[in-house]
Design goal:
Layout lengths: L5 H14 L8 H4 L11 H4 L43 H13 L1 H9 L4 H15 L6 H13 L7 H11 L6 H7 L1 E2 L7 H4 L4 E6 L6 H11 L3 E5 L2 H13 L5 E3 L4 E2 L10 E5 L8 E7 L11 H10 L1 E9 L4 H11 L2 E6 L6 E3 L14 E4 L3 H13 L4 E4 L5 H12 L7 E4 L13 E4 L14 H8 L12 E5 L5 H9 L8 E3 L3 H10 L5 H11 L1 E2 L4 E3 L3 H10 L6 H7 L9 H15 L6 H8 L9 H23 L7 H24 L4 H19 L3 H11 L17 H10 L5 H10 L4 H5 L8 H4 L3 H17 L1
Parallel strand pairs: 1-17, 2-8, 2-9, 3-6, 3-7, 4-6, 7-8, 10-15, 11-13, 11-14, 12-13, 14-15, 16-18
Antiparallel strand pairs: 4-5
Bound molecules: adenosine-5'-triphosphate.
The site of adenosine-5'-triphosphate has 14 residues, from helix 11.
Pfam family, one: Helicase_C
Main location: mitochondrion
Protein name: RNA helicase
Length: 790
């Protein structure tokens, strides 16, 4: 069985790092958010994709002073040894102070000076203690003396109290400046050059699979210069490839990857990007903003708002749900643009069935079973595989290339894999040959997320019967009979118009804000900004900065400038993963020491070369490593001097993709008996070899035979006609296999326990020792013959 030591190595790496003589940081464990065990178990809820459908909720009010440590100011009021005015009557002073605290005039003055009742309680308590001290500064002593004897206006004490409070909480001094900086009431005016244009907004709205993007893309392809902005890198890649295929050279820009259509790596006139990467500097003839309903997304909505308000394009094509029309019209009033709305209807019919699937035996080719956790996906797949049904698998955390490979396998009419098991990650972005969507459940399995919302149901359901694909009609149902009613209820739920668009401070605003509060940590700066920000509540809401705050907390002890920390707080790290958080902290620490992060450092810490994962837990670990490499690539775009080995990291990521893809199969194999494993192994191998090899024809015949779902019978004797393995070995011995495929075969061999137990025959582990090809084949042949002769 393959061992998987990488995760523990990565965990060790952070501890070792902490112990280094000069390294500080790694307070990550103490400051980290609750560990994943404390949170709902459902891994799909952690899945980035599921967050795509989260809407804004009202926020709690928070006092700034509760997150800023008060400075010590007492000594400044005790500098004079001699009071010069004799002893103060302490009881009389107490009475003066009480009168002060009860005065409505003082309350008004406090409000005017941004001192809330809560802050007043904190500061006044400290001020009173100071006033009752023996050695008071002369001027305060004198005033208190007058107030206690002459019973003058207690308001005269206010300047002293205010000065004291401002010493205690210095942000009170620059409140006006801070208020100006957090004024987000007119975001449309942030883009001065864009506002100089009158843009034509063309909305393409309708249900899924109604041709919205298709129509917008027609303009993109015809334009002299154009940009396409969308939520997922897979979508951006698809548009980029499709544009290049249609003869319009198109670049690609995502957080981790920038590619140019031009062979000299010069930027071209067309670019497909993830929405956060939208280029607001250059002018375009046409811009397409896809999935506009995500403007209301709690975490990422700001990126759609920024793209919509800031893009310098003559025409902006906005695609998405009809629910976004009123908001976009309102925003267009603020920007002074014209709006045209094109409505579309679904191109292929979609039918919500009145019967549930109920049994795995009722699964049919073209079915896509939607599950809301990775664990359930593997269980469902294993159940289907046991019944001889091959499955493709897609979930959010898989590398894009693996998702594409799985989608391709499922879409290929010649491939025996006809059923897809996936999370809601398929709700956006992939074109799939789905005939029927089957919801395995309608809840995300925990109280926090509860039942999924109607928008998500519609998006997922809409993937069935996609126009231009093989099934002209789509169907939707549930696995459990008890969920059917809820499905129909969700389908019939009225679409609520989108109320407001997300906002987030720009890096420039945050930098200026931090200049006024040089001692505040980034996390506190973010909290303060969020708290102080004022916006037009009719049309906008403040996005949650939770992810940024979590990352800021991890690196707040590192001495990087706030500007860099702010950049780091945008890195796509899964904060539920300890390994990713630790990797992130170490990267930031090395950056602080200006130590380049090389491939050799990375690989030694990642335990390279890795072994192929064979269990779901191993697979998860490998996905985590893949995500760590994504973090590296993301940072390499901002700090190429520190993250110098971008190309090499890309190469090892490609290797990981292959292993993750193979590991997916291995995880399913784990749950099968030997005969079932062999059957599946053969089908996979043949498909891989035939897709690669010029002698494809020769292999297609046995491949066709092996499609049968039946397992080989024990008493079947081997002969060239019915033993697939012998057929294959013969072919391979003739030299019909590339080195790459031989490597794959070696990896596949791990599934045969007999093979592993006889390792001495061919050397050590097949993955590591690159065994002699003929030896392996001879060994395999012998094994096959022995097996059947028994
Ligand atoms: N007029 C058309 N001619 C040919 N193909 C079309 C046409 N309209 C749409 N299609 C194809 O139908 C499929 C669905 O179209 P498209 O992706 O534009 O729909 P959509 O409404 O944007 O869907 P979603 O909301 O799910 O992204 C695509 O494969 C697209 O190429």
């Amino acid at each position: 069985m393959a061992t998987f030591r990488t995760l523990s190595m990565l965990k060790q790496m952070s501890t070792t790092w902490c112990r280094r003589k000069h390294a500080f940081v790694c307070s990550s464990y103490s400051t980290r958010p609750p560990k994943s065990e404390d949170k709902p178990v459902d891994s799909a809820s952690k899945d980035k994709r599921s967050k795509l459908f989260v809407k804004a909720k009202p926020k709690k009010v928070l006092e700034i002073h509760s997150i800023i440590k008060p400075s010590s100011v007492v000594s400044k009021y005790r500098e004079c040894e001699e009071t010069g005015g004799g002893e103060l009557d302490k009881d009389a002073v107490k009475m003066v102070l009480e009168e002060f605290s009860r005065s409505s005039e003082i309350r008004t003055l406090c409000r005017e000076n941004d001192i809330s009742p809560d802050l007043f309680r904190t500061t006044f308590q400290s001020f009173s203690t100071m006033c009752l001290e023996d050695k008071l500064r002369f001027d305060i002593h004198l005033l208190l003396n007058i107030l206690t004897i002459d019973k003058g206006d207690v308001g005269m004490l206010f300047p002293y109290y205010l000065g004291y409070s401002q010493e205690m909480f210095p942000h009170l001094k620059s409140m006006n400046m801070l208020k100006g900086l957090t004024d987000l009431t007119s975001p449309a005016q942030w883009y001065v050059e864009t506002r100089a244009k009158t843009r034509k907004i063309v909305m393409h709205v309708g249900p899924t699979n109604s041709g919205k993007t298709y129509h917008a893309m027609k303009r993109f392809l015809k334009a002299e210069s154009a940009t396409y902005c969308c939520p997922l890198r897979l979508l951006a890649m698809e548009i980029c490839n499709s544009s290049n295929d249609q003869g319009v050279p198109c670049d690609l820009k995502t957080g981790e990857l920038v590619t140019f259509a031009d062979e000299n790596n010069q930027p071209g006139n067309h670019v497909a990007c993830t929405v956060e990467m939208t280029n607001l500097k250059d002018n375009y003839d046409v811009a397409v903003i896809d999935e506009i309903q995500m403007i209301q997304n709690l975490d990422r909505g700001w990126a759609w708002t920024q793209a919509f308000l800031g893009l310098k394009a003559d025409e902006i094509h906005v695609c998405g749900e009809e629910a976004a029309v009123p908001l976009i019209k309102n925003l267009a009033v603020l920007t002074g643009d014209t709006v045209e709305v094109n409505e579309y209807t679904r191109l292929n019919p979609l039918m919500y069935l009145s019967t549930a699937l109920e049994k795995y035996e009722n699964v049919m080719p073209g079915d896509c079973i939607i599950c809301f956790s990775k664990e359930v996906i593997f269980d469902v797949s294993a159940e289907l595989n046991k019944r001889g049904v091959l499955t493709a698998i897609i979930y959010g955390n898989l590398p894009p290339a693996t998702k594409i490979a799985q989608a391709k396998q499922f879409n290929d009419p010649l491939d025996p894999c006809k059923v897809l098991v996936a999370t809601d990650a398929v709700g956006l972005g992939l074109n799939l040959n789905i005939r029927r969507i089957v919801f395995h459940s309608l809840s995300k399995g925990n109280r926090r997320w509860g039942r999924i919302n109607s928008s998500l149901v519609r998006h997922i359901a809409g993937r069935a019967g996609r126009f231009g694909h093989i099934y002209p009609k789509g169907y939707v149902t549930t696995f459990k009979k008890s969920d059917l009613y809820s499905l129909h209820e969700l389908k019939n739920e009225k679409v609520i118009p989108i109320q407001s668009a997300g906002l987030q401070p720009t890096p420039e605003q945050m930098e200026l804000f931090s200049n006024h509060l040089p001692d505040a940590s980034l996390k506190n700066l973010l909290i303060m900004f969020e708290h102080m920000a004022k916006h037009d509540k009719e049309n906008f809401f403040m996005c949650e900065l939770n992810q940024m705050k979590k990352l800021a907390e991890l690196i707040d002890n590192i001495g990087l400038p706030t500007k860099d920390k702010f950049q780091y707080s945008h890195v796509p790290v899964d904060t539920d993963s300890e390994v990713q958080c630790d990797f992130f902290v170490q990267c930031a620490t090395k950056h602080f020491y200006e130590e380049p992060i090389s491939i050799s450092w990375l690989t030694s810490h990642l335990g390279w070369p890795l072994e192929m994962p064979t269990t779901v837990a191993d697979l998860k670990d490998m996905e985590t490593i893949f995500n760590c490499l994504d973090v590296y690539l993301w940072l390499s775009k901002c700090y190429p001097n520190i993250y110098q080995d971008e190309e090499r990291v890309r190469e090892i990521q490609k290797e990981l993709e292959i292993w993750i893809e193979d590991g997916l199969k291995a995880c399913l194999f784990e749950k099968l008996n030997l005969a079932q494993k062999r059957k599946l192994e053969m089908q996979t191998l043949k498909r891989k070899i035939s897709s690669d090899n010029p002698e494809k024809q020769e292999l297609e015949k046995p491949a066709a035979r092996s499609d049968s779902a039946k397992s080989p019978k024990r008493d079947e004797k081997p002969n060239d006609k019915n033993n697939d393995m012998l057929d294959l070995i013969k072919f391979l011995k003739k030299g019909g296999m590339s080195e790459k495929r031989f490597k794959t075969l070696s990896k596949q061999l791990q599934f045969d326990p007999n093979f592993i137990s006889s390792q001495p025959l061919i050397g050590k582990h097949p993955m590591k020792t690159r065994p002699d090809k003929m030896k392996v084949l001879k060994y395999l042949e012998k094994m096959e013959k022995d097996k059947y002769q028994k």
